[in-house]
Specification:
By secondary structure, the protein is mainly α. It contains 6 helices and no strands.
């Protein structure tokens, strides 16, 4: 079943490859992104910021949870970035998914307000 799920996720992700985000197509790109991430049950990464890093005195479980959350944010950020034009990618590379979306909404505010 896991192999079928991977194939399904990959075929759904191909939606993002069809037309790269260039600014004028923000609404369509964002709608497709939500479809893909909803299918993968990762949509919450667009809605929740990565919390502050736990202190060094935090338990191993807390530190591991934070590390996993950061890795998941990057797993979401990667397909976001590859589905953008190089100009937009350069501005957003290295940020977690939540921050990428926040910046895109600022960049394309007029388009974002219509959708959100």
């Amino acid at each position: 079943i896991a192999a079928n799920q991977t194939i399904n996720n990959n075929s759904i992700r191909s939606i993002l490859d069809k037309e790269k985000l260039n600014g004028s197509n923000f609404l369509d790109w964002y709608r497709n992104l939500r479809i893909v991430l909803g299918n993968e049950q990762k949509l919450h990464h667009l809605k929740e910021a990565l919390p502050e890093a736990p202190p060094a005195t935090a338990t191993a479980a807390v530190r591991n949870a934070y590390t996993c959350r950061g890795a998941e944010q990057q797993e979401v950020a990667c397909p976001m970035l590859v589905s953008m034009t190089p100009e937009i990618q350069k501005k957003l590379k290295g940020r977690p998914a939540f921050e990428i979306l926040q910046e895109l909404q600022t960049m394309f505010q007029q388009h974002a307000e219509q959708e959100l």
